[in-house]
DNA sequence: CATAGTGTTCTATTTGACTATTACACTATA
DNA sequence: TATAGTGTAATAGTCAAATAGAACACTATG
């Protein structure tokens, strides 16, 4: 896995796992790979995995069972909330940033539409 | 100035200065505040300012004159390129992130439009 | 009950970011 | 030419993130 060296790795791991939970790659009740396996997969130290999981356990999206493994919460509602929160967070950020670059609301939408359009043309 | 503790401060300072150059708060040829003044304004150490400016000097957007001060490049073209690059960077990132959250191209545009609409209603 | 597979905890070490402080180099000007 | 205002550089110290490695606690199972 490749990381952005401007953001803590444990933080990026959290986001990665969030994504898997939201896209359904990981479903409620699913068992996560063992921490040592995750560490290997992500070419990262076990402690770093533990740090990411620790926060997610505190947040209630993952439940840990000593000796058994780590499991995605059965609380579907929580996953839904998580997705909404992540989306809003992203939109909020890009809005703030582009607004700071002097783009109006209309400019922002137009530039995104244009970006996606061009992207579509490139990736055919 | 408030910083996001997930990203290096010197990096956020660079972005702040970029923004000022792009919005016209700082124009080509303008003299920047003295490094010690910037340090006070941003409640940050001089070395941290220096680190940010150092990179911007390397990039060619700021020119330093020992004993005189730091100045925004006279190269308008460079500023324009900078703005384009920053916008694309933001769009690229939000697109990747929302795409990873299973949103289609249409979903992404719709959610942004909806976000801006709701925001407009709130901030009246 | 031994063993393998889990999560958990702890200590030690390294690295990058940031701060604090001081000194140095150059420019403008009273 | 002295002084104030600038950028530049160097040293030392603190802190958080990450790594490495070991040990411990619990569960399942042959």
Automatic annotation (TrEMBL), chains A, B:
| Residue span(s) of domain HTH gntR-type | 7-75
Q: Which SUPFAM superfamilies match?
A: Winged helix' DNA-binding domain (SSF46785)
Heme is among the record's keywords: no
Q: Output one GO MF annotation.
A: DNA-binding transcription factor activity
| Coiled-coil annotated spans | none
SMART domains noted in UniProt: HTH_GNTR
Keywords of the record: DNA-binding, Transcription, Transcription regulation
InterPro entries reported for this sequence: Tscrpt_reg_HTH_GntR (IPR000524), WH-like_DNA-bd_sf (IPR036388), WH_DNA-bd_sf (IPR036390)
Q: Which domain of life is it from?
A: Bacteria
Protein name, please? Transcriptional regulator
Question: What species does this protein belong to?
Answer: Levilactobacillus senmaizukei DSM 21775 = NBRC 103853
């Amino acid at each position: 896995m490749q990381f952005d060296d401007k953001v803590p790795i444990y933080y990026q791991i959290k986001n990665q796992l969030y994504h898997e939970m939201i896209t359904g790659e990981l479903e409620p009740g699913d068992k996560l790979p063992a921490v040592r396996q995750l560490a290997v997969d992500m070419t990262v130290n076990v402690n770093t995995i533990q740090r990411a999981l620790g926060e997610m356990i505190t947040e209630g999206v993952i439940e840990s069972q000593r000796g058994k493994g780590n499991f995605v919460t059965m609380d579907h509602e929580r996953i839904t909330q998580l997705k909404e929160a992540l989306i809003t967070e992203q939109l909020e950020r890009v809005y703030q940033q582009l607004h700071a670059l002097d783009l109006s609301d209309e400019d922002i939408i137009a530039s995104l539409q244009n970006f996606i359009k061009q992207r579509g043309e490139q990736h055919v």
